[in-house]
Amino acid sequence: MTTEILTPDQLTDISNAYRSERNLLLRESDWTHVTDTKLTAEEQTAWANYRQALRDITTQPGFPTDIIWPERP
Description:
The chain is mainly α. The protein has helices at residues 8-28, 41-55. It is built from 2 helices and no strands. The radius of gyration is 15 Å and the shape is elongated.
């Protein structure tokens, strides 16, 4: 098994791509935090936890090459 060594520029490109994907997922779930949503309190909590996990992706130990994406509620 060979391990590819990435350059700093490659790591930056990968990091930026994953941040963009994360930001898209956050935008797609913005509706869960509007005041007139019909979500239950439990559903709102699940979505809040999901959104926090998305924001925390960049602090995962393997970021940006080894990411565990949260599951959407």
